[in-house]
Design brief:
This protein is mainly alpha-helical. It has two domains: 54 residues, Homeodomain-like (Arc Repressor Mutant, subunit A); 139 residues, Tetracycline Repressor, domain 2, CATH 1.10.357. The longest helix is centred in the N-terminal third of the chain and has 32 residues. The protein starts with a helix and ends with a helix.
Length: 204
């Protein structure tokens, strides 16, 4: 039993090494421009050894998406359990995304640059995982908005549409931050403006 556990830990470590290497290559070359040979070379694995852990490039990318999904689940769960108002929870989500982006630049760059292309691909399994990733975030924010309406902290709105808009604002700020190569300063400084625009709008 202990021997099996050690082997499982070693396998998980090797898979993680490959995923980390793949993120670096995908970030430089994009999904289409990357080959399994590129990933194997970056991970310092033989191509044959890499195939022991992943069947193909799509499965490696799917592993990256799953890793992102697990990390996103963690900070969304933390936000939902946050003590305080529902506005505080929205702030926690925005802060969670921005902290996550600043710590995982390669991963986010890949997901932002490749996700639309991959949504339209014929890889159904990959597409479903990417969509599930988006839906998870929308569902979490919608739940907070519903609670905020009940608590009279937020006016009557469609929580689902509100969640889509909130996520859209966060994604746009992240995209712009990457485009500007972080020139505007830390992403954490954008939490207050996002909440201000989202909660109050721009009309006088």
């Amino acid at each position: 039993m202990n021997e099996l556990s050690r082997k499982e830990r070693e396998r998980a470590f090797r898979r993680h090494e490959i995923l980390e290497a793949a993120m670096r290559v995908f970030a430089k070359k994009g999904f289409e421009g990357t080959t399994v040979d590129d990933i194997a070379a970056e991970a310092e694995f033989s191509k044959g050894a890499l195939y022991f852990y992943f069947k193909n490039k799509e499965e490696i990318f799917l592993g990256i998406v799953r890793m992102a999904l697990e990390q996103e689940k963690d900070f969304l769960a933390e936000a939902l359990e946050e003590k305080g108002s529902n506005i505080d929870k929205l702030s926690k989500i925005a802060q969670g995304y921005f902290d996550y982006v600043e710590k995982n630049g390669n991963l986010i760059r890949i997901l932002h640059s490749e996700s639309q292309k991959l949504y339209a691909s014929s890889k159904e399994k990959l597409k479903k995982t990417l969509i599930a990733n988006r839906r998870l975030a929308i569902k979490g924010v919608a739940k907070i908005l519903k609670e905020g309406i009940k608590a009279n902290e937020i006016r009557e709105i469609d929580p689902e549409m509100g969640a889509v808009i909130f996520q859209g604002m966060i994604n746009s700020v992240i995209f712009n931050w990457f485009q500007e190569k972080g020139k505007g300063g830390p992403l954490s400084e954008q939490v207050a403006p996002i909440l201000d625009f989202f909660l109050k709008g721009i009309a006088k």
